[in-house]
Design goal:
The protein contains three helices and 15 strands. By secondary structure, the chain is α+β, with helices and mostly antiparallel strands.
């Protein structure tokens, strides 16, 4: 019996080991496997239970928000063409108003967008900064060429230009006459800085609103012309602006991507209507194109 007992014990231990091994293998199959078409597929995977600890791998929640904002920050460039809307002609208004001219303004510049993120890290809009160099056309009068007897201005019915009213006194009264007035055109240069808010609207549309100021890069003269009046000493009032002076501004615009194709939703080009209001009764409306070089097509 002793001679046959050892093989029986060995067989029993081997059976137990095989049974335990099959249980372990079955447990691994159930825990790290998927069933596909009736077949068991083993998965070699590990789960790290500390993966949600942002202090170890991703830093604090605030630092992750800063990282998202940093990744979302982008730059853009603009090209803008607009026309000044002249004031209604009246005594004391500008030369452009009297001559009924819409003077153009051209701008080139660039800016930066900093997206704002909600708690779910989805864009809720963006803070926007913009700088530009602006070229403004203007019309003025050569003050040295004006007649000494000038008492005011009228619009020419035939040429729609500008005429000056001169006078001469006689013993029996005062005689007036009109003379043509030459208009002088020139260009003004300014540098503008803005900060505002932008947000997407219906995927392809976006709107922008900003406040800022323009810095005069050269001296400017704002002329006001008056209707004929013998009691008025000067028919022209001139306000001088020195180089470096700041002029506040308000900018608003609405933009759309150049294509509505789903394949080009992220096109880097947008075009839109743009309006600017500055102190001194200067109002421009025009078209503005923006280029976001960091945006790629889908």
């Amino acid at each position: 019996m002793h001679g046959t007992g050892a093989p029986i014990v060995q067989f029993f231990l081997l059976t137990v080991m095989l049974f335990l091994g099959s249980m372990v293998l079955r447990s691994e199959v159930l825990l790290d496997s998927i069933r596909l078409d009736g077949k068991i597929l083993l998965i070699d995977a590990q789960v790290r239970f500390d993966s949600t600890d942002f202090r170890k791998e991703g830093g604090s929640s605030s630092s992750r928000t800063r990282d998202l904002s940093r990744r979302g920050r982008s730059s853009y460039f603009i090209a803008h063409v607009g026309l000044g809307v002249p004031e209604v002609q009246a005594s004391g208004s500008s030369v452009a108003s009297w001559t009924r001219q819409s003077l153009p303004v051209y701008s080139l510049g660039g800016g930066t967008v900093w997206p704002a993120w909600t708690k779910r890290t989805t864009p809720a809009g963006a803070l926007e900064s913009l700088w530009s160099v602006d070229r403004l056309d203007r019309v003025a009068l050569d003050l040295n060429a004006l007649p000494d007897s000038l008492i005011g201005f009228v619009q020419s019915e035939e040429t729609r230009g500008l005429e000056g009213v001169v006078y001469e006194r006689f013993p029996i009264g005062v005689e007036t006459d009109t003379v043509p007035i030459a208009i002088v055109s020139s260009a003004l240069w300014r540098a503008s800085f803005q900060i505002g808010w932008t947000s997407t609207w219906h995927t392809h549309w976006s709107w922008h609103a900003a406040i800022g100021a323009s810095v005069l890069l050269m001296p400017e003269e704002a002329m006001r012309l008056y209707a004929p009046d013998l009691a008025r000493e000067q028919p022209v009032a001139v306000a001088e602006r020195l180089s470096g002076q700041l002029i506040p501004l308000v900018d608003v615009s609405i933009h759309r991507r150049l294509t509505s194709s789903r394949a080009y939703v992220d096109s880097p080009f947008t075009i839109g209507l743009h309006a600017r209001l500055q102190s001194g009764a200067q109002f421009w409306m025009g078209l503005q194109m923006r280029w976001y070089p960091s945006v790629n097509k889908n």
